[in-house]
């Protein structure tokens, strides 16, 4: 029996939106509307200065699911990941610094300088993480059950979920080092106390703890941060679990490959086409309206890759009552970014020749991270406050591995910064003052580890949480479209009323990082949303 192809509109041309579009195009007619002139959303590349191809927001990849890379044939369409070895370096003012990567001998030697027992336990710790990751990973591929929904299929889906959950105890029986108590520790415990049970070396614990707080306005002592440690080792896009890589040509290389796939499948992509409203008739999607010319686009369904609250607020007529659990989504953020064009490669302290290949961590101790958090959380509400006096920095120089993104002999540096509180500033003069304060604090934090660094800077870009909100549509500047601790995942992401990608409006879906399984350039949200939309249509 012939079934008419439905017209589905995707709001947002980020990686999740494009992935959703590519899968939907196998069955239906798809149009993507992107507000900016550049595809990729946060995973984009821009030539900010002549010859310098910068990834302004997201900057590394590991979580991108292999089923998407292979299923959409991204590598045949120009997508390539570049490995970094070593992948991590934490400079130390009183020692050689800590190098970590896929080389177990390098890890053991580097950690052994600080503590021989830690050197022995590090491999065990990674094996332990991998075991628990294998227990958790199947959840990433499940569609959560919206308990509050009245749809007929919910009971069946809930029974399927219970059947799936019943298989988990088999993992505990197979390996006595994996048990329900330790799993609960990962899900609900704080990262600091979990790391304390494994290691003594402060520099090692601090290096590992940065993964637990990245993108979140939390310190390592906050309950729930242990899970984020686990989240960051689930990916193996580079071929090595937990090892992050660069996209050749910048993060926009992913968007370029996805655009090619979408075009091949007949997807229409419209740049510089922001949406003003989603038209709703009798609680069902009817279409949407473009900002530029107030043109109405009729469609059968809308999949939004922007966050849940913003999506629902675009509905016209407005929802009589916004779901209470949507209003409780935690968008607090304390992340900022500085992008630099450099005249030469900076000389960070240390002796290992490859120390700058991966991420350089400026976080020498757990106390340093805690103090950085408290400065931002409890500082006065002045423009030059509510940011770390000595910020936690994650520094990458992708041009070392990828020469295509900078002129010969020059380099691009990305500095991801914790903690800079979102203040909701609108006045450009206030924002400029705050950017200048942040830049100077970052330069002071770097100075002990890299002499004459500022002399190398040719160009700079500073992105506050307010800039991330304005440029990329990230509410509160939150890079994950909502907190990523365990209380904000699976059936509660973004809320129990929208956790299965469907919203209270019939035909309106979520396909961005706001939905399960969340952010981190993973792509699964887009794929899963497409699957559920195809089921419904």
Description:
The chain is of the alpha/beta class and 537 residues long. It has 17 helices and 20 strands. It has a 7-stranded mixed sheet, sandwiched between helices. Strands 9-2-1-13-20 form a 5-stranded parallel sheet, covered by helices on one side. A 4-stranded mixed sheet has the order 12-11-10-14. Strand 11 and strand 12 (296-298) form a beta hairpin. Helix 3 crosses helix 4 (116-140) and helix 9 (202-213) crosses helix 10 (225-231). The longest helix has 25 residues, at 116-140.
Quick summary of this structure?
This protein is α/β, with parallel strands linked by helices. The chain is 33% helix and 18% strand.
Defining key terms:
537 residues; alpha/beta; FAD/NAD(P)-binding domain; 3 domains; 7-stranded mixed beta sheet; 5-stranded parallel beta sheet; 17 helices; 20 strands
Helix/strand structural class: alpha/beta
Largest sheet: 7 strands, mixed
Here the CATH topology of the largest domain equals FAD/NAD(P)-binding domain
Query: What is the CATH class designation of the largest domain?
Result: Alpha Beta
Separation of the first and last Cα atoms: 15 Å
Number of E strands: 20
Name of the CATH superfamily of the largest domain? FAD/NAD(P)-binding domain
Helix content: 25-40%
Characterize the overall form.
globular
Cα radius of gyration in angstroms? 23 Å
- Based on the structure, what is the oligomeric state of the protein chains? single chain
Low-confidence stretches: none
By DSSP (H or I, 4+ residues per run), the number of helices equals 17
Indicate the proportion of strand residues.
15-25%
| Mean pLDDT value | 90
The total domain count is: 3
| Strand arrangement across the biggest beta sheet | 7-6-16-17-18-15-19
CATH architecture of the largest domain: 3-Layer(bba) Sandwich
